[in-house]
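Morning run. Coffee first, then this:
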Amino acid sequence: MTTNLKACLRAMLTALINGSLALLLMLLVEFAISGTLRITAPYLWAGLLIWVVIFVAQFLRQRRLCRSNQAHHQPSACHTRH
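And here it is:
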């Protein structure tokens, strides 16, 4: 696999987990305030925006880490978290 693909997969997984948790937290607060569990468009847009921001940041970070490790001839270090 190429460096960009590895970084993309890791970033997508991280963003999916964090975006889902953020959406769940927003829905929990909505339920605590109003007593009903409504998934409205602003919550979905906010969850999507959070996903995009986390994905971009993690993709750039993972790509930099993988390239740095490849430069030091450590191909397996791309799979470890730093």
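The CA atoms of residues 69 and 77 lie 6 Å apart. Good start to the day.
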